[in-house]
Specification:
Elements (H helix, E strand, L loop, with lengths): L3 E4 L3 H11 L5 E5 L12 E4 L1 H11 L10 E2 L2 E6 L2 E7 L8 E4 H13 L4 E5 L2 E8 L2 E7 L5 E4 L2 E3 L6 H5 L6 E14 L7 E6 L9 E6 L4 E8 L8 H15 L8 E14 L4 E2 L2 E3 L5 E2 L7 H22 L3 H29 L13 H13 L2 H4 L32 E3 L5 E3 L9 E6 L8 H4 L5 H9 L5 E6 L9 E5 L5 E6 L3 H11 L12 H5 L2 H4 L18
Helix pairs in contact: 1-3, 1-6, 6-7, 11-12
Length: about 550
């Protein structure tokens, strides 16, 4: 079978290629550039805990060290001169990962260099695409341009996506929702390791909001919110902002600093009308743009890759299930639309507008709480998407039991016993293309595996797992948040909870597994039109896009 073609060699495209390779799917990555990334310390990414675990699994090492990235020790929210909120991160409330984007991309490129199933074709810019019953044919131009044949194609080629244009998919939304001046500098601040949000700082050129976020090696990224239609930021004006902000935070005198990089970051809000057209898909910035109020667009793009990889892999190996492939658009588009809608509802109040005040906390503390949620990955602006209304959701069962994770949400990373008897973290078993079945069995940790693997309910559960319609791995956990003893959790390859059952229920477990891989699902469980179209009003520009308006691709040869 032909490889999957990934268009675009940014973090999302590279992560998708690696995720497919981990599931034995060959991939060709079309990179219009030379295969190298510009080193920009002012261009960074913030990843939530589970997304960081996803890319670290693919890259094969941790980013939260002194050489590459930083996991914040805490978060401070200040208004004028008053400390409004202070958070400390720990195992119960994990810190986000903050690192330069070129560090992430470079690590993924290094991992691909050792992966024989991934071919990166540099200096190949897509210019045409045709689909047929058996696959796709793409043509690229450039010094190494040629024809490519693939089974599926995923456009990870950014906000000006050629794939999206060739598929004739509309991309409605709003331009320049926010603008920020950005500086990366090395200095010492009074809150080592803690990120800072400072609203209405009491110095002349502080503007409405300043954010300081630590990186590794004493480097900080500082962002100043700019007026929507303000003048261009000159180098001299930026230096004034830097010196005043550092002095304001350090008791009135500017500490020594080394300016490493600068830039202007403009936030757009857009959402593609379709994320799948036949055998072609969109992911990352090609499918959505967001980032106001601290929400992170790349984090969502990596979630696209994680969601799509196992579905493409299953279809590549075993033949396409249309409901499974369709679920990518339903799940991911709904999740991003909800985040865009939350941001657009909050912006008028948080940025001084009117309307919607009855829906958003009106106090300064409420505003700071909302902004903190976006930056640290909590609440409607920041928390991971849940797929409770997915078309892959199983039918309700009387055997279901409540646990600390809602159905459709990412599971908690607990320690489990693997089939070989070793202790591993649950997230280490994700991304391999199979389902996970976790038995919660208190007390097993004090016994050797050989004593309990053939005792009690284990033989019956092992037989039920072997009989599932899709390969699954049986794991045992000493405990899981909120789960009663002998609960059985069924987890998707991307780490989202399918169901939690009370005890061993072979029939219910089989039905849930079948639904999770695109078989029978609950009637009205979210196949839908509502999920697919929701959020359009939140990102639609005046007069832009009220019709679906998507046609089959007919590129020129």
């Amino acid at each position: 079978m032909d490889p999957v073609i990934v268009v675009g060699a940014g973090p999302v495209g590279l992560a998708l290629a690696l995720a497919l390779a981990r599931q034995s799917v060959p991939t060709v990555v079309l990179d219009e550039g030379p295969g190298k990334d510009e080193q920009r310390l002012a261009r960074t990414v913030v990843l939530r805990e589970d997304t960081a675990a996803f890319v670290e699994r693919l890259a094969g090492h941790s980013f939260g060290d002194t050489e590459s990235g930083a996991r914040w020790a805490g978060w401070r929210s200040v208004r004028r001169k008053q400390l409004m909120r202070e958070l400390e991160f720990d195992d119960e409330a994990p810190a986000p990962l903050h690192l330069p984007q070129h560090v992430l991309t470079g690590a993924l490129r290094d991992a691909i260099a050792d992966e024989p199933l991934v071919k990166v074709a540099v200096e190949n810019k897509l210019d045409s695409l045709e689909q047929d019953a058996g696959g796709l044919t793409a043509h690229t131009r450039g010094p190494k341009g040629t024809w490519w044949r693939g089974s599926y194609l995923v456009g990870c080629d950014g906000s000006r996506s050629t794939v999206r244009k060739l598929l004739d998919v509309r991309f409605p939304g709003r331009t320049a929702v926010e603008r920020h001046a950005v500086a990366a500098l090395r200095t010492e601040l009074p809150w080592p390791g803690q990120a800072l949000l400072h609203r209405m700082p009491p110095w002349r050129h502080g503007g409405a909001e300043v954010t300081g976020r630590p990186l590794a090696d004493g480097v900080w990224r500082i962002d100043w919110l700019l007026p929507p239609h303000g003048d261009l930021v000159t180098p001299d004006a930026l230096v004034v902002r830097i010196r005043e902000s550092l002095a304001g935070w350090c008791g009135g005198s500017t500490p020594p600093y080394e300016l490493l990089d600068t830039g202007v970051h403009t936030v757009h809000h857009r959402l593609a009308r379709r994320w799948r057209v036949g055998r072609a898909f969109l992911a990352g910035d090609a499918a959505h743009l967001l980032g106001a109020l601290g929400s992170q667009g790349l984090d969502e793009g990596l979630r696209d890759a994680d969601n799509l990889a196992w579905k493409l892999a299953l279809s590549w190996h075993h033949g396409a299930r249309e409901s499974l492939l369709d679920s990518y658009q339903v799940e991911r588009r709904a999740g991003v639309a909800a985040r865009l809608r939350a941001a657009d509802q909050s912006l008028p109040v948080l940025r001084g507008g009117k309307g919607l005040r009855s829906y958003v906390p009106g106090s300064a503390r409420g505003h700071d709480a909302l902004l903190t949620d976006g930056h640290v990955g909590r609440g409607p602006l920041g928390m991971p998407s849940s797929y409770a209304r997915s078309p892959l959701a199983p039918a309700p069962s009387e055997s279901e039991t409540a646990v600390g994770t809602e159905v459709g949400a990412p599971v908690t990373d607990v320690r489990v016993t693997a089939p070989d008897g070793s202790f591993v973290q649950l997230r280490e078993r994700l991304g391999l293309g199979h389902l996970l079945v976790v038995l919660v069995a208190p007390g097993t940790v004090v016994w050797e595996r050989r004593h309990w693997v053939t005792a009690g309910i284990m033989p019956r559960l092992a037989a039920a797992v072997t009989a599932l319609p899709h390969p699954a791995e049986l794991l045992v956990a000493e405990s899981y948040p909120g789960a009663p003893a002998h609960s059985v959790l069924l987890i998707r390859p991307d780490g989202h909870l399918v169901t939690a059952l009370s005890g061993v229920r072979p029939a219910e477990l089989y039905a849930a597994a079948e639904a999770a891989v695109g078989g029978a699902a609950a009637p009205g469980s979210g196949r839908g039109d509502d999920d697919t179209e929701q959020g359009e009003d939140a990102v639609r520009a005046d007069g832009v896009g009220s019709a679906a308006g998507v046609r089959a691709a007919r590129p020129s040869k």
